[in-house]
Each structure stands twice: as C-alpha cells, then as structure tokens.
Design brief:
Component of the endosomal sorting complex required for transport II (ESCRT-II). With 454 residues, this protein is an alpha+beta fold. The protein contains 14 helices and 16 strands. Helix 6 runs antiparallel to helix 7 and helix 8 crosses helix 10.
C-alpha cells in the first residue's frame, strides 16, 4: 500500500486545512520524492512542508492531484544523507504503514475514509470512536495485557507485540539545499509528539474554527515553550539594543541642547534597568577582566545619587579618588548580600549573574568604589556589603554618641532604638553589636598579660 496519503491543497496548507492544534514549522522548495530507489515521476518537484502532526509534499505542477502527506506518529526512524558529488542530500524515513479504516461521525454523519490526524471529525470536531481492531492489535499474546498502540514490546512481560503493518522506507531529495535545518526540525517535531496533546472542549458539536475563535488562549503547552525559546534567543538582541541606545545617548550628551530624542533614549535605558548595558563575558578578554567589569557595574548601582548604599562614585582606571567625606554618607550604607544579588539581577534583566560569579566580582569592590564598599561576614552568619560608616570603630563612636545624648535625658538605649537611629533591623543591629563586643574582647585579651604558673 502507498504510505503517502493524498492531500488536496492549493499551493500551500491554510488554517482551514490543518487540524486542531496543528501548525506549520518549516517549508523547503525544490524537493522530490522517491518510490523505493527510483525517483517518483509524478512527484519530482515540489515543496516539503513540516507541521507538528505531518510531513507533507505539495506538488508544484498539480498540487490538488499529486500532493500527499505522511503522519509523524508512524515514523519509526530518521536518517540524513548529506549527498555526494551529483547525488542530492536526502532525508530517509522508516515508516510503518497502518491500515486506513473508514469511519462515520456519530454526531453529524460525515464519512471519513481514514482516521484524521487528531482523531476528530473534520466537520463538527467530535472525537472518533476507538476501533476494536486497533485495540486488539496490541494485546500481548503471552500475558493478555492490553498495551498502548505505540508500543512494540509488552509493558508487563516484555514480549514482542506482533504486528502485520508493513514497514517501508521513504526518501525525500533536497535538490535546492535546506536539508539540514529541515531534518533538525523534523527530529524535534517527532520528539515533541504534538499529536498526543488534546485540547479540551466543553461544548460538543462546535466546529474547530469556532472553538479556536472562542478560546484563543487555549494553546498547547508546546506553543508556550516555543515562545520561551524565542525570548531566550532574543536576549542577545536586547543587549545589542541597549548598547546602541547607550552609544546614541553618549554621542548626544556632548551637545548643549537636550531634545525629545534624548529624553526618549534615557527613558529606554532606565526601562532596561541599568544606566549602561549589562556586562557579559563576550565583552571582555578574560575572566578577571569580566569580574572587575561586573564589580564596576555593581558599584554604579550601590553608590551614587540614587545608590543603594548612599552617595559615592565608581573609580575607573587612571582616576585618583578624592578624600572620602564621611558627612556625605547619610544613607543606609549596609545591605545583605542576598538582597543586593536579587536587586542586581532584576536590574540586569535576562543577563543573570550566578552567586559564584557575584562573589568573585565582590572581591574587586574595594578597588572600584569611593567610599570603599567591603564584604563582611557577621558573627550570626549574615554576609553583608557595607561602607566605612559601618566599620566597628565608626559604629562604636556613633553608639557612644547616642548614649551620651540619652544620658542627658537619664534614660538608656535599647536595640530597637539604636536600629531606628541607624535605619536597620533590630536583628542586624544586634549582630553588629556582637561583632563590636567580640573585637573589644579580643583587644582586652591582647593587652592583659598572661599569667603562667611557676
């Protein structure tokens, strides 16, 4: 029997000629079919169309007469021949030819000469009734277990399931190239098995076109994953766009007049999360330079007019930082490392930084920040980034100053009150005080002479 099923289409498949949930993946012109090892004279030049459910051939000269398709569900093996000398590249399929059983829809009485790709009526969308012959074909002769029709061995005992369906070899010759991307798309479509997905319908008897119109959001999960892959491929384009916007903004900043275009460019850069494009490994020459560039990017977010840790600026190569001004450091000056990591990745968008890379970049922060931003692990185990304002000596001086003010009012100072002064949480303030006490205890032990028994 002929493995290719006739498909009467006019030059290309339209949405009406596709089944529910089926979509076109790739097309390639200049394709011919083979009958065994001989070229098929009636199907020697046409277009190969790959959808999520079938592999079709649309003839150039007589599309409604010679167009045909095979079902991806019945493909057992694929092979790619790259071609040699005058031999064209070919895609070879090992195909199982199953019997085409005619059936009539019980709802609208439409006759079908073979099972449809989605096992539904082409007129009303009703599900086709299962055939007893198909069910009995996969009953194990050893243990009588009813297996799925796609299985070749019994799921219970492993006995080979006998089948009378012939296996044939189908060849498609790509005379104008394009065989490699078509073959890769074919393998992905077979692995995705989109024909096994079922779109639920609450109202039986509604046509496929009306169901798709009334529920446009009911897309298969494969479409959602395809959209995710598209977004991931566009990540590099987003970074390139950010670089282009930044270059235009720097070029226009040299002019005196600031117009509407400059405002638009600056707004676009702000929407991307960072003042400059996110640093990626392909922008620098080695890993050390990458970590140093990340440290400068992080420093620009921590220090500045709207910095997370307060005012300051980034120290670039060849610049000498001025003397630090403690009076200007009026903001928080201390944040947990995990909180900074989350805010930084949110600003970077799709170019995420893993924790290991961030720890390597943080080591360069003291070299590129003014005032200096340092990494510190508290006694409680918290890892924080802080400015010199939260070094032990500076915090101790402020605590004594607060106590002197409270002594004038003849009252003490609680941890919560100190946290309100420093704009920190009481738990974090307690950890800082414990670090100060520990450093003072170590200093006291260093000054007290050790007594040794005689």
């Amino acid at each position: 029997m002929d493995a290719w099923e006739p498909w009467s289409v006019g030059g290309g498949p339209s949405a009406r000629e596709l089944v529910q949930g089926e979509r076109v993946i790739i097309t390639q012109a200049g394709v011919g079919l083979y009958e065994g090892n001989v070229k098929a004279a009636a199907r020697s030049c046409g277009i190969a169309v790959l959808t999520t459910h079938r592999l079709a051939y649309i003839d150039d000269r007589a599309p409604r007469l010679h167009s045909a398709f095979v079902r991806l569900a019945q493909v057992r093996q694929t092979e790619h021949y790259a071609g040699f000398l005058r031999s064209s590249p070919k895609v070879i399929l090992t195909y199982v030819c199953r019997r085409r059983i005619a059936w009539t829809c019980a709802l609208c009485h439409t006759f079908h000469d073979a099972a449809t790709l989605d096992a539904r009526c082409t007129q009303c969308g009703a599900v086709a009734p299962p055939t007893d012959e198909t069910d009995m074909a996969r009953v194990c002769s050893a243990c009588t277990f009813a297996n799925h029709e796609e299985l070749t061995h019994c799921e219970m005992c492993g006995t080979s399931l006998r089948t009378d369906d012939p296996v044939v070899s189908l060849k498609l010759s790509f005379r104008q190239g394009g065989d490699t991307p078509f073959y890769l798309s074919l393998r992905e479509a077979i692995q995705a098995r989109a024909w096994t997905l079922r779109t639920l319908s609450t109202t039986p008897g509604v046509s496929i076109a009306e169901a798709q119109t009334s529920a446009p959001g009911a897309t298969p999960s494969s479409d959602a994953l395809a959209d995710l892959h598209v977004l991931m491929r566009r990540a590099r384009e987003m970074v390139d766009m950010a670089e282009s916007l930044r270059a235009q903004l720097d070029h226009r900043s040299q002019a005196k007049d600031v117009g509407h275009v400059d405002t638009m460019l600056q707004s676009a850069m702000v929407q991307l999360g960072l003042e400059a494009p996110a640093v990626t490994p392909d922008m620098v020459r080695n890993e050390k330079a990458y970590h140093r560039a990340l440290a400068r990017e992080l420093a620009g977010m921590l220090l500045g007019e709207h910095g997370l840790l307060g005012p300051g600026y980034v120290v670039h190569d060849g610049t000498v930082p001025p003397a630090e001004s403690p009076e200007a450091d009026t903001r928080c000056g201390l944040l947990a490392l995990d909180e900074v990591w989350g805010l930084w990745n949110r600003a970077r968008g799709v170019a995420l930084v893993p924790p290991r890379v961030m720890r390597a970049a943080v080591a360069f922060l003291p070299e590129v920040t003014c005032p200096r931003v340092s990494l510190r692990v508290l006694r409680s185990g918290w890892t924080v980034l802080h400015t010199p304002r939260f070094e032990d000596a500076a915090l101790e001086r402020r605590v004594l100053h607060y106590l002197d003010e409270e002594d004038a009012q003849q009252s003490g100072l609680t941890t919560s009150e100190l946290a309100a002064h420093e704009r920190l949480t009481p738990v974090l303030v307690k950890s800082l005080l414990e670090s100060i006490e520990l450093s003072l205890w170590d200093a006291r032990n260093a000054l007290v002479p050790q007594c040794h028994p005689v």
